[in-house]
Amino acid sequence: AVDIFVKDLGLVADTAKALHFPLPLASTALNMFTSASNAGYGKEDDSAVIKIFSGITLPGAKS
Q1: Gap between the Cα atoms of 18 and 50, Å rounded
Q2: What contacts 3, CB < 8 A, 6 or more positions away?
Q3: What is the CA radius of gyration of the chain?
């Protein structure tokens, strides 16, 4: 679920920050998953993170 990724990536980011170790990709992923959670997708499968990008039509989505 998206919310689990937010929790886990948050732990990774906190540890990296404490060790002064930059993790730019993990930080970007955390921002994306946090945005998805804030948009109401927190309980959905982690693939729901793509729904935060406007203008993308998902496979099988009705136009």
Answers
A1: 30
A2: 37, 42, 43
A3: 13
For the stretch 1-51, pLDDT in tens is: 999 999 999 999 999 999 999 999 999 999 999 999 999 999 999 999 999
Give the H/E segment covering residue 6: helix 2-18
Burial environment of residue 1 by CB neighbours within 10 A (0 to 12, 13 to 18, 19 or more) = middle
Where exactly are the structural domains of the chain?
2-49
> Is the CB of residue 56 less than 8 Å from the CB of residue 12?
no
Q: Using an 8 Å Cβ cutoff, are 49 and 9 in contact?
A: no
pTM, full prediction? 0.81
